[in-house]
């Protein structure tokens, strides 16, 4: 590789992340969700950067952006990517770092002539699942794993199918952009979103596996009543049922070591200060590295919910909106990545991911690997999320070394 000015490149990544962070659906805080105006604008901008890096761009009906190396037909694809959607009031690194860093790598390996594979970059449109509570809609569509019935998923605005129709998107199912045969590997750089790397004083870490997750929507129904006149024993207060259940969710995390479970979204109806709550809809997100433990915890929580509903004379519906098994990263890729990390930083730390990533979906088509980058205070899904410039530079160097090593391992020059 010719001499590379790593710092200048890291600075460009950082500036681009700042520009993306200005593109939001909600003034004053960073929020970009599937197929929103801000997503369209951010995706266009990333597309321009991809073109400047020599990639040929295309997008699909669900808003994914793909940059391909031109004129490299016949070669297998090494796909680097992450997502451009965010949670509500997000930080600027979750997802966007992997996309922007991938574009920088495409620029570094611009000719790609000495690589035995073709380097593509993906910016997926829905990893967080904020709009429909079900994550990975973007990468599932990319992989051809989104089916007609998945388009019926809905929120208060309507279904995904209606949203696509309103945007006049030509729904193109179930064809994915690439087949598994074409893909040599999928690789994602992501902020750690936890405190381990900071604690070990390391800039990057190699991901071993990604935890499985289950997501549900719960709907508790009681009866609205006057807050001043209805005695407590005569009430059917849906909020109290849901609140009691939320505490059992916390208890489950003690009962099943290693479990993390969260009630993160809650809607109260009629949501009026002097009316007993009649209906509660809330999310439930359950994760564990071990799928058996997750399944056992989900069953236990289901029983607890039924018990609370019966005790409080509430009716209860629950809908599974997502089930993804835990995914192991590929050992060969992980070995090359660990060697690259050792070369660049003098150390290599392996760690699992509690957060979900598009790699979970891509693993159904090809081997996957991930590199984590240290973040301040382990903070993520928060506007104060922060990665220092020196760590961006180290991540860039590490991945460039990884690609070089992989090129040699795959028979390149
Ligand atoms: C994605 O950030 C997730 O793990 O929820
Ligand atoms: Mn996230
Ligand atoms: Mn993410």
In short:
The chain is an alpha+beta fold and 413 residues long. The protein has helices at residues 6-21, 37-52, 96-108, 137-142, 160-166, 196-200, 238-255, 291-311, 331-345, 359-362, 389-409; strands spanning 56-59, 65-68, 76-83, 117-124, 154-155, 158-159, 183-191, 204-210, 212-221, 260-262, 266-269, 279-288, 315-324, 327-328, 350-353, 368-373.
- Beta-strand content: 15-25%
- What's the count of strands? 16
Q: What is the average of the pLDDT values?
A: 94
Please tell me how large the radius of gyration is. Answer: 23 Å
Overall geometry comes to globular
What is the string of SSEs from the N terminus onward?
HHEEEHEHEEHEHEEHEEEHEEHEHEH
CATH topology of the largest domain, by name, is Aminopeptidase
**Helix fraction by DSSP (H/I, runs of at least 4):** 25-40%
Secondary structure class reads: alpha+beta
Distinct bound molecules? glyoxylic acid, manganese (II) ion
């Amino acid at each position: 590789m010719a001499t590379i000015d790593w710092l200048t490149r890291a600075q460009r990544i950082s500036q681009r992340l700042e520009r993306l962070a200005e593109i939001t659906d909600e003034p004053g805080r960073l929020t970009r969700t599937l197929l929103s105006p801000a997503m369209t604008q951010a995706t266009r901008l990333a597309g321009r950067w991809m073109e400047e890096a020599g990639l040929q761009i295309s997008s699909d009906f669900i808003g994914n952006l793909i940059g391909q190396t031109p004129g490299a037909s016949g070669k297998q694809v090494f796909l680097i990517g992450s997502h451009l959607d965010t949670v509500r009031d997000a930080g600027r690194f979750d997802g966007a770092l992997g996309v922007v860093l991938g574009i920088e790598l495409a620029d570094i390996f611009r000719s790609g002539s000495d690589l035995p594979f073709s380097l593509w970059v993906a910016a997926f449109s829905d990893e967080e699942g904020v709009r429909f509570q079900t994550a990975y809609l973007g990468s599932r569509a990319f992989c051809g794993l989104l089916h007609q019935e998945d388009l019926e998923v809905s929120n208060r605005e309507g279904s995904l199918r209606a949203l696509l129709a309103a945007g006049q998107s030509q729904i193109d199912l179930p064809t994915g952009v690439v087949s598994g045969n074409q893909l040599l590997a999928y690789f994602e750089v992501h902020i750690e979103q936890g405190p381990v790397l900071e604690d070990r004083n390391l800039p990057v870490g190699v991901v071993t596996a990604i935890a499985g997750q289950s997501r549900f929507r719960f709907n508790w129904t009681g009866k609205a009543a006057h807050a001043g006149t209805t005695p407590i024993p005569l009430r059917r207060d849906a909020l109290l049922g849901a609140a009691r259940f939320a505490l059992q969710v916390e208890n489950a995390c003690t009962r099943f070591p290693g479990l993390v479970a969260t009630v993160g979204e809650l809607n109260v109806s009629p949501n009026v200060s002097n009316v007993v709550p009649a209906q509660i809809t809330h999310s439930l997100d359950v994760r564990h590295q071990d799928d058996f433990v997750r399944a056992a915890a989900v069953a236990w929580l289901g029983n607890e919910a039924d018990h609370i509903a019966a005790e409080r004379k509430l009716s209860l519906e629950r809908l599974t909106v997502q089930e993804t098994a835990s995914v192991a990263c590929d050992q060969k890729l992980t070995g090359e990545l660990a060697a690259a990390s050792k070369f660049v930083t003098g150390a290599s730390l392996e760690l699992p991911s509690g957060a979900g990533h598009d790699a979970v979906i891509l693993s159904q088509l090809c081997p996957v690997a991930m590199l984590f980058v240290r973040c301040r205070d382990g903070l993520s899904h928060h506007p104060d999320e922060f990665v220092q410039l020196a760590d961006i530079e180290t991540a860039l160097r590490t991945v460039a070394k990884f690609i070089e090593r992989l090129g040699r391992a795959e028979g390149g020059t």
